Amino acid sequence: MKYTFLLLAGLVCFSTTNQAAETVTKSDNLLIRQKLNTGWQFKQVGKEAWHAATVPGTVHTDLFNNKLINDPFASDEETRQQWIGNESWQYQTTIEVDATTLNHDEVDLVFYGLDTYAEVWLNGTKVLDANNMFRTWRISSKPYLKVGKNQLMVLLKSAYNEGLNALKQLPIQLVNDNDRGEFKTSVFTRKAQHHYGWDWGARFVTAGIWRPVEIQAWSKARIENIRYSQLNQSKKEANFNATFSINSTENQQGTITLSDENGKAFAVKKVILNKGDNRQTVPFTISNPKLWWPNGMGKPNLYTLKATLAVGNKKTTDVQQIGVRTFEVIQAPDSIGQSFLFKVNGIPTFMKGANYIPLDHFLPRVDANHYKKAVAKAKEANMNMLRIWGGGVYEDNKFYEECDKQGILVWQDFMFACSFYPWDKAYFDNVKEEAIQNVIRLRNHPSIALWCGNNEISEAWHNWGYQKVYKWSKEDSTAIWHGYLNLFEKLLPEVIKKEDASRFYWPSSPQYGWGSPKSLTHGDSHYWGVWWGKEPFETYEKKIPRFASEYGFQALPSAKTLEEYIPRSEWSTNSPIMKVHQKHSIGFDIIDLYLKRELPNPGSFDDLIYLSQILQGNGIALAIEAHRRNMPRCMGSLYWQFNDCWPVTSWSSMDYKLRPKALHFMAKKAFAPNLISSDKKEGNIEIYLVADHTAKTKGVLSCKLYNLSGGVLWQSSEKIEVKDNSSTLVKKISETALLQYADTSNLVLVTNFEGVKSFHYFSTIKNLKLEKQKYSLKLTNEKKGETRLTISAKNLMKNVFIDSANSELELTDNFFDIEPGETKTISIKSSKKIDIKDITIRSMFDYMK
Ligand code: BMA
Fold first, then answer.
1. At what angle do helices 662-670 and 605-629 cross, to 10 degrees?
2. In ligand 1, which atom is closest to the CA atom of 199?
3. Cα three-residue angle 314-317-318, rounded to 5 degrees
4. pLDDT of residue 830
5. Which atom from ligand 1 is nearest to the alpha carbon of 178?
6. Beta pairing, strands 148-157 & 196-198
7. Chain CA centroid to CA 593, Å
8. Are 319 and 162 a contacting pair, CB within 8 Å?
């Protein structure tokens, strides 16, 4: 709304950091922006036929849209479509340039993203050679343009072949185990590393003009960027510096004005601009600041800042939103080792969240709504942090804007993962520019919490035995390790020091590999003893790190998503087509191994979908609970992984279509501000109340022991009070005493604190004597698209699964347990009117033989 107001008021509104901000062209403008997203065609180099293309886009989606290939994600198309990455592709369009545009002092052609090795030709002259997907390219183009029609051509050379050339020049074999190419070329190319394959990812080495392209015509001066640095913060005020980087065409005078969202100016500075680059700082104060809080701690208040540079009677304006907040990483020696805890606005805050990968292998088709929905899912699951993992991309501005608005902090990796990278000067210069540009683009977002150099490369060096596997000589090892240190301990931290000094830089995640005892006493940890090490889920309760930045377990995607891509005839773990959508070589076997330990045998593939999701959900919830129970020893829990980028069996809690798996709902409970969690210790059941900073700390704790047919065998009730931001042992019950009432297979202890429940079972699920569920259902249509479903249970219902064959249901809860006698209401959103006949209710009993 505020943005609209600015446009209506006739002001020119754009953001230098917004890739696709709307443009309004006025004659009093220093700058004109012209989007170049129409009239594009593409063809394969060496072929004649041109086809319509979408820009921003990718070659795979263009081929698919022209029906030249099948949906890359369907069936085993991935196997058949590898040739696309070995070819080069030509894109072209005609751009109409008018005299007003060309009369400006400077006319730049700006590519916000080229994937990856691109030659740009304007009217037959080569104007750019690009080699980095993560960089923006600005080409001073006035000499090459004319009034009227201009020919713009982009040649995208095969990234695989280009990488291969680089690979051949290096006598040492660098590594990327996830790269499924014949030769492992990914590390030579500054391109999303998962494009080459990952253990949850397809291999499509795509190409494309993947972010917007535009002409920027400007005169006199241009705001390159503005850095908003917060200097301090108190109840009374927060002081900032706005540092403008301005490019001026001549020595001249100008005026900088900062205004609030209502257009009211609060800082004005007359400036002398020298020809070339200029830095100008304008201090300002926000009085009685409303702080930016992460989800669960308060509102993520934002301030809209309108910055205007005026030269003579012309101006240019940049609009951004900032937040007032502090973020600190406390690494203090303690009796355990060294803390790794984050303080937000001075308050130690347990980080609850997950690891995020790109929402689509072909990212240009992800729109603002999709980003909004994905971030809303994190918020819905009571998360306050997402970690952008280093094998994907520095995300689109829209993603960070949503995180700003929805209170989700971002742990931002630089784009390096699980591999060793070249260290020659050209490569480092390229990476340096990439880092500078992305830090500048993202640093004003209050959601950005910290920068991290890479994913698991330090761990790989120390623990994965590559030195032996790849037979690196001593000299080669030294060269590779020096390359590593120069990149992650020198180049990147230097960029942060210069461009974003107040933010914390962490060289590699994790600090220590999971085999090292130090991974539990220092820094962050990726605990993969469960899954990779095949240890039981209970290990999570013993291996408590200071900050769990990765751990995870796979489950199948929802049936609806599979149906869209894989014919039902192939629904078997042995099907070669299903295996294309499972990238872990023994993934199905590991799921099976854990299933056998915990759950009934699946009678069908649909059963396997449900059971694998329950297995994953229970396992990860157990870890989250253990991490939170052990606060402040442990102060963060980010599971692997939040989402998928194509239809696949993976560690995600939401599948490619953002359909939640059971884990999504189980995480929502385990991350809730109040958590009741039980732990079996020395013959007792210990009940903990975990209370976040804003959670309830006072109330009634009641326990009820039932047999599985719903009979109450024992109960207790008492008033309790705990400190906020803490985990407190609130009750100990002797297990032996409870086992007097019934057999372990026929008991459940339900603990309730002010409506927050926990279900404690005394044996594994497969051994429970569940009874056929007895319940009644009621459906009430509240308002359009919103329905309420009420389930009244007579006996215990375990892992209730609400589904509908014909309708898409968005549920506030699913896969939950219901206490005997409980009435539970769930809200359902659906695009269609739902009838009770459309809904199916199943629970664990139905999967037992
Ligand atoms: C972690 C990640 C990814 C990987 C995942 C599952 O280590 O960093 O590289 O996909 O494990 O194996």
1. 20
2. 10
3. 160
4. 87
5. 9
6. unpaired
7. 29
8. no
For CA atoms 462, 464, 465, 469, give the dihedral sign. negative
Name the amino acid, one letter, at 567.
Answer: P
Res 24: pLDDT: 39
Residues whose beta carbon lies within 6 Å of some atom of ligand 1:
198-200, 417-418, 455-456, 526, 550, 640, 651
Ligand 1: distance of its center to the CA of 200 in Å?
9
Residue 783 reports pLDDT greater than 80 = no
Tell me, in angstroms, the distance from the centre of ligand 1 to residue 416's CA.
12
Q: How confident is the model at residue 27 (pLDDT cuts 50, 70, 90)?
A: low
Mean pLDDT of 497-506: 97
**Per-residue confidence band for 10, with pLDDT thresholds at 50, 70 and 90:** very low
Cα 3 from chain centroid (whole Å): 26
What is the percent of the chain where pLDDT is above 70?
Answer: 96
Q: Pick from 179, 508, 640 the residue to mutate for probing ligand 1's pocket: most ligand atoms within 8 Å of its CB.
A: 640
* Angle formed at CA 531 by CA 527 and CA 537, multiple of 5 degrees: 80
Whole-angstrom distance, CA of residue 530 vs CA of residue 538: 9
CA 778 from chain center: how many Å? 37
Amino acid type, 306: K
Half-sphere exposure of 312 (CA within 13 A, CB side): 10
Structure tokens at 66: 């022209």
Q: Which residue has the tokens 């929802």?
A: 558
pTM of the complete model: 0.96
- DSSP assignment of 383-412: --EEEE-TTS-PPPHHHHHHHHHHT-EEEE
User: Residues 218-239: pLDDT tens digits?
Assistant: 999 999 999 999 999 999 999 9
Local structure of residue 288 (DSSP, 8 states): S
Band of the pLDDT at 785, cuts 50, 70, 90? low
Specify the ligand 1 atom closest to the Cα of 532.
12
Q: Which band of pLDDT confidence, cut at 50, 70 and 90, is reported for residue 15?
A: very low
* Sign of the CA dihedral with 832 first, then 836, 840, and 844 last: positive
